[in-house]
């Protein structure tokens, strides 16, 4: 069972999608019901993975490795560490919530919509489990298609423009990634005589400095577009504003994480020297993103584009934490990936709820909502505070660790980025004030109804996560820690590689083969911590 | 007993959860019992633990309790743990004691408000956060309380959220505090990366070993922490939110914006005394900022007509005194004034609330007058508080203020200028407070007939807390009488084990013998005399000879306009910080984002499109064209091979 579980997790939604496709298009409730059940079972499967996961072990777990296209050395190689584990769980939870939230809001093309949701789920889960670069690439592209349709078909008035922009940006990045991937593939053959896309094997290959810079650049561009890192972010506000609620939730909650996940999984371990070289540049871009995203967010008139720009700022924090290249920064960054999924996901759901009632998202169209929708306002407040990063909410733990790590890396990074914390309060509270406080000035707002049971059901799990991660983050941090240690030890090879080139010593130990060596030092570390 | 320490903050949290989750659906008496009861239990527990702490030997007066691990990452780890020592014991008594009285008072004050349940839920949440702040055993948990009280302050200032001014004020408070929190965080980073821990006892023990005394690192760390304190405790340059915070219900002003939350900065610095004594330059900055804020805010207080605004500026000014004390390394004097101030300022605000309540929500003192006979209890209690804040000998404020003034003069970090500013502020304080009393309770009844008709003394639930606080304002200072009175300063002795350098000034004062003692008597006499003169001036201008006031105001109209408009500081901030930020943001959005970045990218896309479009035309499908190009190609190739 344990060896099958990841495959089951990835392909169960696909199976569900096929099942839904077989239901006649006019039987809406069957389509919705089947989709919901499939997504719930997928979520339970991810919980099973979570509970079977060995939280102290280093290295990949639940690994399966079958030959797929033998002649090309492409393998069906899956496996997860603590980072992928949490992202998997986040993905399945958000998918369930999205399906519930779309219950009444989707009226046209119901079947296509839910099939897309389930397909998307397969693509996302696959990306987080793939340990073969080619497989990774396949899932990465698979994910793009249903998202394109979600925006392009069920989106707002400028949906086609937004969808095409989204696809072009991503495709541009993925083409570069494909080129880099093939280069590595042939490079590895020259190094070891074997054709393979296996990530763990490739990690052991020393790559010349100059080549690392190019390869890192190609992958980084693909991932940075996804994050999105300033100045590659302009597709995001368009995509968010036009996407349907569930599309925005998945986009912000999971798809953006693909970018940062790619950095952790591929860029940092494969190109340690390039990582060190590029680190200051990426940190500076991340800090620009933090401040820039926050400032632009402050003057938005549409709530959704405000949240979209706030994502640019928050993802800047994640990037800064990753490239602080120390324990606190990176652990905080991984946790913040989850936090952003939870909090921003919840924000988009909330915006969706009010949009369904008023069919507008302009801040100026609201005001005085606290009076008519007190429960809604309370949920909104909690999520707002979590987005601001108030202590005892999830956002604080992540941001604090990131800033702590960034400060250690270079105190100027820490100081400048910390000012983003002030700006976050400005844009969120100002928006909250204009939407929720004041008197009801628009006649249409006077008869708004408060949250329904279904809507509360969608928000309550996220609120629980907000406080859980905020007050007792230990279960999450513990699972992230071993994985982050591995990544850090891989990055720390950088100086070794340089030494080897200089003094022509023996080649660097290969990660897959000398796993024991690594594991020993790592378990010693964890032992000391416990 | 000590294993119940965690219940002190937890009980109000439970109260909040019950009242908050049920969204005020419970009947009012139940809400009242849960809200007041939880704080009352905390108060009882605090007293019991205080007694237990007192029974321990002086050197081991520490009770610690760790609840659960909170954040740990690599070599960083903090717990959710509580620390009861003499300092936090004083604080929890003040917080639960004054807090309980204000809860009771609110039962009467908020009786007719539709948001009754919500109000008490917030009030309980505040009490929880404040108790967490003072009981935390590490900086990060303190920061939780620190932000928590800020949140409650935000929620309670904007309690009447339908008023734009109220929600504006709440937002302003939160954002200005965030600027301070930024400093607090930077301070924590410096401390952690040098000491390797954020726990108070580790930091205080390690700091002298790790940091070079007077070095740039520790000075920066202390200044950053102090930046946090200027936000929370409304000091220059971040005081601007506190006067606006008066938009909140008056019990909130009393509890949060006078007695407890705004003193958190003072507490934090006293808690970190071992760090601050390592940074004399930072101490000097604190003393200067404290002294300046004390004087500056007092002058604004002279010209305000809104009864709550006078008290708000008075609070800013009194907080300045506390920082002055900290800045001259007289931390226990600062905490002593924090305590007495909590009594008399809470009383003044609650009294003002009682007046506003009686006046049907009128806050302008120009429309009051002659209320003495209508509100006898309110008048008597407020009068006691006024005597206390003015520093009339025997009242609580006298002892604490006198100690600060003496330390400002005599401490190693002190200076005669600090004393002069302190005494001048004392004079101004006496003046504006008696002005408030005369305008409100004496003279003609200037209110409308309708308002006059409704005048009534407040109900028992409001007047009893006033009376209790009046007693505390009267006798609360007796625990900290100066040595020259020939008695022990119990308060200083109690805090001694916690405060860095606590013994220094004492021994200094004792050792130098008679000369210093007579100096101390002299300075005390001078300040009392000045206060007496100022009270007389207030009597002359606002009771005896009102015409003189008008003519004086005309003569000094320029100064008066400046004071009434609070030196235009809000306007200056608006012009220099707020508006440029907004304009810059719009510029980033409309120009950089839409035109430059997106323009470039769309331009590239269009360029790609144009190129393809041009190339498309070459695929004309006409055989003749293809043949021509083919022939040209052949010619070029042949030429290349022949001549190349």
Biggest sheet character of chain B: 2 strands, antiparallel
**Biggest contact:** A-B, 54 and 49 residues
Q: How are the strands of the biggest sheet of chain B laid out side by side?
A: 1-2
In quaternary terms, these chains amount to heterodimer
In brief:
Chain A has helices spanning 5-22, 28-52, 82-101, 110-129, 133-154, 159-192, 199-202, 209-226, 235-242, 245-270, 272-298, 303-323, 327-358, 369-372, 374-388, 394-409, 411-436, 453-471, 474-491, 493-503, 515-529, and strands spanning 61-69, 74-80. Chain A has 530 residues and is mainly α. Residues 497-530 of chain A have low confidence and may be disordered.
Question: Can you walk through the features of this model?
Answer:
The complex is a heterodimer of chains A (530) and B (644). Chain A is mainly α and 530 residues long. Chain A contains 21 helices and 2 strands. Chain A has a domain at 271-476. Chain A has helices at residues 5-22, 28-52, 82-101, 110-129, 133-154, 159-192, 199-202, 209-226, 235-242, 245-270, 272-298, 303-323, 327-358, 369-372, 374-388, 394-409, 411-436, 453-471, 474-491, 493-503, 515-529, and strands at residues 61-69, 74-80. Chain A has a two-stranded antiparallel ribbon. In chain A, helix 1 packs antiparallel against helix 4, helix 8 (209-226) runs parallel beside helix 11 and helix 16 (394-409) runs parallel beside helix 18 (453-471). The model of chain A is unreliable at 497-530 (pLDDT under 50). Chain B has 644 residues and is mostly helical. Helix content of chain B is 74%, strand content 3%. Chain B has 27 helices and 2 strands. Chain B has a two-stranded antiparallel sheet with strand order 1-2. The radius of gyration of chain B is 31 Å and the shape is globular. Chains A and B meet through helix 11, helix 13, helix 15, helix 16 and helix 17 of A and strand 1, helix 5, helix 6 and helix 26 of B.
